[in-house]
Amino acid sequence: MFSNFLKFDKLIEKSLFFSLLLSFLDSYQLFKIPLSWIGAVFLLINFVMLAMIEKIKIPNLAIPCIIIALLPTIFNFSIIGEIVDGVLYTALRVFSFITFLFITYIGSKSDYKYVIISALQKAFIVISIFSFYTYIA
Predict the structure, then answer these.
(1) pTM for this one?
(2) DSSP for 19-81?
């Protein structure tokens, strides 16, 4: 039983590390899809799986609060439409906002806080080394 828990721990840590690493690579693309978008989707999938495994419920009050918070963003995309595709820009902003709230909530309620922090530390170290290397080169 304990060995399965350790394997699951390592799986979570490695998948979170990979997702965070992809999220920080803003300038790179794979088949014209930015790696940061792919990383954000993988990160969301990781936390959805974590929430399902731990059976963490979202409070009912959170949904109306999120809708109220997103109202200015949803009604503001016609102004942005002159610069870039307004619908795509708005959808990405809404996805980022909801994902941030979901990940923050699940991360605070999860029993795997140590694994999440460990993955964050490793990702930040790799990104720092990568940033330092690109600064010098």
Answers:
(1) 0.71
(2) HHHHHH-TT-EETTEEHHHHHHHHHHHHHHHHHHHHTPPPPTTHHHHHHHHHHHHHTTHHHHT
How far apart (Å, rounded) are the C-alpha atoms in residues 10 and 137?
33
pLDDT tens, the chain, 137 aa long: 545 556 777 888 888 888 888 788 777 777 877 788 888 888 888 888 888 888 878 777 777 777 777 666 666 655 555 555 666 667 777 788 888 888 888 888 888 888 888 888 888 888 888 888 888 87
Residue 82 DSSP one-character state? T
What is the C-alpha to C-alpha distance for residues 68 and 90, in angstroms, rounded to an integer? Answer: 15
> Cβ neighbours of residue 44 under 8 Å, at least 6 residues apart?
99, 102, 103
Give the residue from 58, 66, 61 showing the smallest Cα distance to 94: 66
- Are the C-beta atoms of 106 and 50 separated by less than 8 Å? yes
Of 123, 16, 108, nearest to 62 (Cα)? 108
101 Cβ contact list (under 8 Å, min separation 6)? 62, 66
